[in-house]
Amino acid sequence: MKKFVEISRKLLLVAGVVGLMVGAADVFAQDAASASSAAEVVAPAAEVAATPEAAAPAEAAAAPAAPEFNKGDIAWMLTSTLLVLFMVLPGLALFYGGMVRAKNVLSLSMQIFVTFCLISILWAVYGYSLAFTSGSPFIGGLDRLFLKGMLDAAGNLTAAATFSKGIYIPEYLYAAFQMTFAALTPCLIVGAFAERMKFSAVLIFMVLWFTFAYLPIAHMVWFWAGPDAYTTKEAADAATAGAGYIFQMGALDFAGGTVVHINAGIAGLVGCLLIGKRKGYGTQSLAPHNVPFTMIGAALLWVGWFGFNVGSNLEANAFAAQVFINTFLATAAAVLAWAFGEWAIRGKPTMLGAASGAVAGLVAITPACGWVGPMGSIVIGVIGGFVCMLAVLKLKAILGYDDSLDVFGVHCIGGILGALLTGVFNSPDLGGTGVYDYVAGTWGFSGIGTQVWIQAKAVLITIFWSGLVSLVAYKLVDVIVGLRVTEELETEGLDTAEHGERAYHS
Fold first, then answer.
1. How far apart are CA 180 and CA 502, in angstroms?
2. Which residues form the signal peptide (predicted)?
3. Segments making up each domain of the chain, as ranges
4. Of all helices (H) and strands (E), which one includes residue 160?
5. Domain 74-499's class?
6. Does the structure show a pLDDT above 90 at 443?
7. What is the pLDDT of residue 119?
8. Each residue of 60-79: pLDDT tens digit?
9. Which of 181, 253, 458, 479 is the most exposed place for a label (fewest CB within 10 A)?
């Protein structure tokens, strides 16, 4: 009981510090007039139903018209949001849970389950606001703190932009969809330090990392004013100037190569290096306890990932079909690349390898899925599957780090490859879409070299910022509660040592 009270006290202390820092972030945001900032959130209903300045007083006083939403888009985005939830619970929990030893499967499941819930609440309190409202190029403001302002004066739901002019979804729905991304990403990190980190330390780290790593990267990559702001060149320039820093650069990330996978992968690498190797690593068997769990988890991740990628299209339109088939083909190609590569190198293809290959392909296609054609997606899948396989089988052994469930080797390496290859296969000459000019109404492409360089800069910014935040956060957590369990508790297993229960009873 005393231990619980002490940990609770420290968690509240950290939460208070985070709250003060979040409040300070708004002070340092770029000049954003309070009267107009709320109107710049995603794509507000206020812009959709704006009254001309010359309107008669009676007209100006009239209640704003309710924005019109497409029922098919709403149905698809509700489904996509649930699919992303399904990816994590139970998908990721089974995928990771099968790879750890039986004495740690519940502790890992608990870390994923509680982290997802914790970040979901923080997202509603301040996360959505800091990620998706105007502020500076690096972080948003507090206009949507506690999800306020999502109903207009008449009680209508405010609107969030899609990628088509004049097409909207309810902002509540957009916030819910993005919440699943925000809650999923920290859950990926736990695989890097599985079987040895304190539960209390995991939770405190996740609060810090989510606030200071995930939210700034999400804002820099994905925040913009929406397509309706792009009417003339001058208006387009002004709209882009108010977008996130990496968006302003012209980096392409359809569904989270930088925001989710590179971001989490680097945090995982820093964590496993600072916490150290598992007891017995390299000297005794630390084999997965249930590979069928891992295979089932990978299959559930594949299904859920259609919500992740295709849902990022934000509309149930014809273009969603291209994102769908790209996600399908890249994953299949990566499974084959990993399995046949492992067969050639180790003499036998494994189910664990094939399941890991599926995830590697999904990671690699994530930033590219809306920007490339089907043949490009296959190439990205093959490269992603094979290179991630080499990172897991060879690079980890050469460098000697204990990334328990290969978060860095699959998510970071796969995310980097996907981000860079997006710049290659976005070329219309290679079957890609190019980039749409909302002012001219045409598709264009700046050139492979130019776009790859932009993609590389986005990758480097993400690696640097996430790595720095992760380093500081781990060190703070180590001071507050300590990062690692004792050798005795690690030997016993975290299921009983941390949670007082077992997954299996003989």
1. 29
2. 1-29
3. 74-499
4. strand 159-161
5. mainly alpha
6. yes
7. 98
8. 445 556 678 999 999 999 99
9. 479
